[in-house]
Design goal:
The chain is an alpha/beta fold and 372 residues long. The protein folds into 3 domains: 2-168, Alpha-Beta Complex (Spore Coat Polysaccharide Biosynthesis Protein SpsA, Chain A), CATH 3.90.550.10; 170-263, Tetratricopeptide repeat domain (Serine Threonine Protein Phosphatase 5, Tetratricopeptide repeat), CATH 1.25.40; 286-372, no CATH class. It has helices spanning 15-21, 40-46, 60-69, 94-98, 141-151, 172-188, 193-205, 209-225, 234-246, 252-261, 266-278, 282-293, 313-325, 329-342, 347-371; strands spanning 2-8, 28-33, 50-53, 75-78, 83-85, 102-110, 118-125, 154-164. The protein is globular, with a radius of gyration of 24 Å. It starts with a strand and ends with a helix.
Amino acid sequence: MLTAAMIVRNEEAVLEACLRSLSNLVDEIVVVDTGSTDASRRIARDCGARVHDFPWTGDFSAARNRALDLSSGDWILYIDADERVRPIDADVLTPIFANPRNIAATVRFHPRTGFTAYPEYRLYRNDPRIRFEGAIHETPLRRLFQIVSEDDRTIAPAVLTLDHVGYDADQHRKHMRNLPLLEQSVRSHPGRSYLWWHLGQVRAALGARDEAEAAWLRGVEVVRKQTSIEGGDALSYMELIRSRFVRGVHDMELLHEAEALFPDDFQLRWLRGRILIALRRFDEAVPVFETLLRVDADTLLAACAYDRNIFGLWSFDSLAYCHFALKQFRESERYYALAEQAAPGDLQYRTKRQLAAVRAVSQPAEQEALDG
């Protein structure tokens, strides 16, 4: 039996869609409510969930672990109210559940609309040793990996996709909630680069750009001291490089450092291309964006999620701009046409395509005049 375990608080706008997406997949839904004042409890019950109250203590792990304690399934899927499971035949999970060596499974997780997927650990055996840790960005992974090592267990990839839609709405309320939790967490766990990255994100969203860059720099300093590197460790590098770029600072030294640590990171590749354009090194920028266009965003499963636009629209636009600057107007016209197809409602690409076409037609005459 598979249990969906979740915690909610004032999620009436998104909860029903989440629960409906689970209807043909799970056998039990456990909802732990941490103090809703809206219709969340009623919606959960109407959708067949078992609802339990748990006073909010400022600790996400405490609430999550309560939901795990209340789950009776052999396996548990942990999911949030602003997430949805894509339709799937539940039988495809049977081989994973039936394999006694499997202690957990990853799913394909899209963290926001328009982003590629990365593997997220969301399916676990109902084992009392697997419990969450951390007041925010809570995770059971330390304990899970310990079990894998000590018991010689395995983690399988599951053909299951989750979409997170929480970032589609205004985030101010969540930022205000998360800010003190993150500030406390980085004091308690200063060696987690991901916490510094998220603190920087929240500070930037609330308009404190200098404080955001300070947090990202701390995240970078944490990574510099680590003996092993994970994909998510690139995030503070990326945000710091991007933030400085927006301010007109082209930090190639920090970019080189990041690329040495994360040579396969596509966001760093994108930033390299944009910095090269800013430095008017168009010949060097072209192959960077051509490489990005060879990535299939539909099937990509990397350590981090990426905005799909870097594998399409934004690279078309950047290549068109580079070729125009290099006076390669036919190529510029071609890429602006591709950008126009990718964003048919954006009239700028039609205008730029037409301009490139005009320049391409007039170019032979101009060259003939120069030769004459």
